[in-house]
Specification:
The structure holds 2 protein chains of 2 kinds.
Chain A lengths: L5 H24 L6 H4 L19 H24 L1 H28 L7
Helix pairs in contact in A: 3-4
Chain B lengths: L8 H5 L1 H20 L6 H20 L7 E3 L4 E3 L1 H21 L9 H19 L3 H19 L6 H32 L4 H8 L6 H19 L7 H8 L2 H26 L4 H23 L5 H22 L2 H32 L10 H4 L1 H15 L5 H15 L3 H27 L13 H19 L1 H13 L3
Antiparallel strand pairs in B: 1-2
Helix pairs in contact in B: 2-3, 2-5, 3-4, 3-5, 4-5, 4-11, 4-14, 4-19, 5-6, 5-11, 6-7, 6-11, 7-8, 7-9, 7-10, 9-11, 10-11, 10-13, 11-13, 11-14, 12-13, 12-18, 13-14, 13-17, 13-18, 14-16, 14-17, 14-19, 14-20, 16-18, 16-19, 17-18, 17-19
Amino acid sequence: MPEDFLPIAVLIILATGLSFTILLLGQIFGPRRPNPRKGSPYESGMRPYGKGQRRVPIHYYLIAVLFILFDVEIIFILPWAVVLRDLGIFGLIEMGLFVAILLIGFVYAWKKGALEWD
Amino acid sequence: MPIVPFDTSMIAAISAELLLLLLAGVILAVDMIWGSKQKDHLGWITAGGLLFILLISLIFTRPEPVERLIFGGMLRQDWLTFTFRLIFLFAAAITSLLSINLKGITGRGEYYALLVVTTLGMSLMAASADLIMLYLAIETTSIPLYILAGFMKSDDKSTESGIKYFLFGALTSTVMLYGFSLLYGFSGETNLYLLSERLTGGEISIWVLGGAALLVLVGFSFKVSAVPFHFWSPDVYEGAPTPITAYISTASKAAGFAVLVRVMITVFPEISLYWTSILAVVATATMTVGNMVALAQKNIKRLLAYSSIAHAGYALIGLVAFSELGIASLLFYLAAYVVTNLAAFAIVVFFANTVGSDEIADYAGLSRRSPGLAFAMLIAFLSLAGMPPLAGFVAKFYVFAAAVESGLIWLAFVGVLNAIIGLYYYMTVLKVVYLYRSDDDEVPIAVSRPAAIALGVSVIAVLGIGIASGPWLGWALDTASSLF
């Protein structure tokens, strides 16, 4: 049993060894000419302004999260719809409960103003 | 262990979980409909609902005489599930009472809903008999706790605490999941009880199985904050809202122990000699590091954080003993620790509410400001230190007795030495409370009614478990015997 894992062990050693070797070679042979422009954070070629930690609006994020809610719902509903006839009334109730739980969360987010754009 | 086909009595077995889900929905609905007109009704609804569920599960979810696997082997209906469920519900009810009237929390529906959902997750953690269910339950518990720890969005410390908890939790749960995948790979089963049948027989080398056990242990050690996976707890405890700190340090830790006990005893009895040796070392390190570092703390929440690390070490002794008495003593220890720590944190909540500080030095003169509160603190801290006749003493006694019974006299000795170190720093806090004076001797600490109820119940529980320990130990022994 353990010898089955030998190739994996060899791979781990080779992979780690290779990455360290590359880093080491870069350290030894790479030219280093630092200047302030190189040290500054990259902002699509623009000159950076302000602090990196300033607050940003997260509306997109909220919308994305609410989207995931329905996305996941669809993932479950599609296979369920295929076998709905076999599941019968039991399946219908189960899915009703599932949707109801998600719905409570969605209505809550809506009521709390997560969908208002400003 | 047969998997029982579905029948309606199974619905009763998970009635507590179903009601918890319903309660979370009700809280959100109430918050939506009435909004923030009334400040504290959400907390009362939560606490009342949890109390109601506690009673329901006490009556209707009592395990059958024979343990059984229900819902296709996903859950196991036994005494361990039952006992831990009651502990979680109790802790959650106390926590929601403590949260009432706290600035930034009261009147926030999602806070209480998340609290209820995380309790639901813990309850399922204790019941899980399947790797997939176990992992889902752990995540259902953890994710709301990450949010709750960082609930004070405008407070940097709280945000830090949430992020730190999340990063640590995500990392350890990855490692644990890797362990789960190895177990599945070896056995082709995800059900803990079927899996253990496949693993016995010595076909799989001890080293490989031990490796998988170690990976799984990483995840559980994070949950119970055992050394070396304890680094998160002081920072998280300090930054999180204090009721949540109380909840993480009690219920979440107990949930970690529930899965630790079930998985180690069910899946790895073959290699018990190896993992008990590892856990003996972990327990020693956890007790010693927790107590030693607690000596130097100036902040009461950090002090209680390190003390809770040390307490995880004491409780681990019960598992290391690997006997019925050992597991029973662990359960007893957890119950005693949960009620004691809730009482201790209740006082921290009051104090921070009035004084706005968590520094131990500011507790000076508390005995003159609020004699009753100081006395409750005396009881809680002496119980944490392990003084008779309080719960903490009996709990430590049983744990050490279990260690001696299993021939681990050295471990009991380490435990006793650590209890002495612990006594020193608990007494130092009490010294500040009782002997030092402050300039505000005349100003009493404001105690709100719900929080006073929470503190009163916890203190009575500390006294009750300590003075009449017999029936509780009997219960713990029954629970332990359902595992072996």
